[in-house]
Design goal:
The chain has helices at residues 2-9, 27-37, 39-47, 59-82, 93-104, 113-129, 133-144, 159-184, 215-232, 242-249, 254-263, 271-283, 293-305. The chain is mainly alpha-helical and 307 residues long. Among the domains are: 2-144, no CATH class; 271-305. α8 crosses α11 (254-263) and α12 (271-283) packs across α13.
């Protein structure tokens, strides 16, 4: 192999080239990174053939590739982290966006003009993508019920609105649980037997009659106390599992833990569903087109759930 021989001459790692795949994120950056790594060996191999001599990368080409790679390389790890499906990812979106704006995609002194323009376009695209009010509210709610972040990455002027929505959803969840029990409850008549009147103690004269409180007020106070207790609890480490934390502390926050299950199960990207489509494509091949839908569902389920 001519490439392997050139790699040995230049003391380069004997890596094969990477081909870009349109449906796989990061393949272009990996392809560019590999070309930059092997450009001396590639130049030797291409220059030996007259037909491919014009493909030898010039210093202008290398500058462009380095600028693109410098802008895209930091995004690869964040993209892989947000594309997972076995851990909580949606609550990471707000912290990741903040980190990208402040450090990852921030302009540096040694960045070229092309690198700066790429970073700016990426930030503008992400700002437009997540600029919808409904999307922002969803991300804020997911971040709020994550004990790693809570309100740390929510705009200060929106924290009060998010807390109000959290309380309203907690109350709505509690009322749904109470209604079936209230509707099935039957009034029990007091026993008809007369009991002997107990003698009053001296302390009973100092007792005052309790002020009746409506169930809605009681529920509102309980929800508010639960939310305040959650906000006062310390945040956990950023690498800790929020689901494990809620499993342990769910008994202390019964209503808020239900909201955590509701929002933290949302994936941050469409990668899990795309993987499911790929699995279905691997099951239903040209030789297995007569499979019934029920069989396909079972095979896909086994493929995604068996260890």
């Amino acid at each position: 192999m001519a490439l392997k021989k050139a790699q040995q001459e230049h003391n380069l790692p004997e890596h094969s080239l990477v081909t870009e795949c349109q449906t796989r994120w990061g393949s272009r950056q990996k392809m560019i990174e590999r070309v930059l790594e092997q450009h001396r060996a590639l130049s030797d191999v291409l220059s030996e053939d007259r037909k491919s001599g014009h493909l030898v990368p010039t210093w202008q080409d290398l500058d462009v590739l380095e600028s693109v790679n410098q802008a895209l390389q930091p995004l690869q790890e964040f993209t892989d982290a947000l594309s997972g499906e076995s851990y909580v990812s949606v609550s990471y979106v707000k912290p990741v966006l903040h980190l990208m704006k402040t450090s990852v995609l921030a302009e540096k002194e040694d960045d070229s003009d092309f690198t700066k323009s790429i970073k700016m376009k990426i930030l503008n695209y992400m700002s437009c993508k997540y600029d919808y009010s409904a999307t922002q509210e969803l991300l804020d709610m997911a971040c709020f019920v994550d004990p790693r972040f809570k309100a740390s990455y929510i705009n200060s002027d929106k924290v009060a609105d998010i807390e109000t929505r959290v309380m309203s959803e907690m109350e709505a969840t509690a009322w749904k649980e109470r209604r079936p029990a209230d509707s099935g409850a039957q009034s029990v008549d007091p026993p008809s037997t007369t009991l002997k009147k107990a003698r009053k103690s001296l302390g009973s004269f100092f007792k005052t009659a309790p002020i009746p409180v409506s169930p809605s007020v009681q529920l509102e106070r309980a929800v508010e106390a639960e939310l305040n207790s959650y906000l006062l609890s310390p945040t956990i480490d950023s690498e800790a599992d929020p689901l494990a934390w809620w499993r342990l502390h769910g008994v202390h926050f019964p209503q808020l833990s239900k909201l955590a299950r509701k929002y933290l199960c949302i994936p941050a990207s469409s990668s899990p569903s795309e993987r499911l489509f790929s699995t279905s494509g691997n099951v239903v091949t040209c030789q297995r087109t007569c499979l019934k839908p029920s069989k396909v569902n079972m095979l896909v389920f086994l493929a995604k759930n068996l260890p």
